[in-house]
Amino acid sequence: MAAQGLRSTEQRRQIVETFLQTREHITIDQLLALVKADDPRIGYATVYRTMKMLTAAKVAHERRFSDGFTRYELAVAEAHHDHLICLDCGRIIEYSEPGIEALQDQIARGLGFAVRYHKHELYCACLDANCPHRPRPR
Predict the structure, then answer these.
(1) What is the pLDDT, as a whole number, of residue 1?
(2) Rounded to an integer, what is the distance from CA 18 to the centroid of its chain?
(3) How confident is the model at residue 113 (pLDDT cuts 50, 70, 90)?
(4) Residues 60 and 9 in one domain
C-alpha cells in the first residue's frame, strides 16, 4: 500500500487479507459482503479503491467474462491459465493445457506473429448432473 502512496488502514488490510484467502474469481460486491461480515463499517468505495490498487501493483488481475461483472483473481506471475465459464451456473474453472499453448504459438508464428499474451475463455454448458441450473430433460 505504501508503494501505491496509500495509507495502510485496518480496513484496507482486512480487504487485502480477505481477498488473498479467497480462491474464487470474486466481484467487488462479493468481496464487500465477506469483509462486511467482519467489519460492517467497510464501504464499497474502500473495497473498490483497494482492488484497483492491488491491480495496479500486479497483485490482482481484473477479469471480465460475458456476465458483465468485473472479477478479481490473485496474480501469480508464472501461473498462466485459461478459463472455462459455465453459462448455466456461472462456475469458473481455471485450466492449463500445454498443447493449446503450443498450437497458439504455432498458429501465430505461421501468420507472422509472436504471442505476447492472450486470454482464452471457453463458454460452456454445464454437464454436472448436480448443477441446480442445468436444464433438465423433458
Answers:
(1) 65
(2) 14
(3) very high
(4) yes
Could you tell me if 56 and 91 are in contact, meaning their C-beta atoms sit under 8 angstroms apart?
no
Secondary structure letter of residue 135 according to DSSP: P
What is the β-pairing status of strands 26-27 and 70-74?
antiparallel
Please give the C-alpha separations between residue 115 and each of 9, 22, 73, 118, in angstroms, as whole numbers: 40, 30, 22, 7
Q: Which amino acid is residue 77, in one-letter code?
A: A
DSSP category for residue 136:
P
What CATH number has the domain bearing residue 42? 1.10.10.10
Taking the C-alpha atoms of residue 54 and residue 37, their distance in angstroms, rounded to an integer, is 21
Residue 11, C-alpha cell as written in the block: 480496513
- Looking at every residue in the chain, the average pLDDT score rounds to 87
8 Å CB contact between 90 and 67: yes
Q: What is the pLDDT of residues 58-100, one digit of tens each?
A: 889 999 988 888 999 988 755 788 999 988 888 888 898 999 9
Number of domains in the chain: 2
- Report the alpha-carbon distance of residue 132 to residue 134 in Å, rounded: 6
**What is the model's pLDDT at position 41?**
94
27: β partners: 71
DSSP, collapsed to helix, strand or coil, labels residue 43 as coil
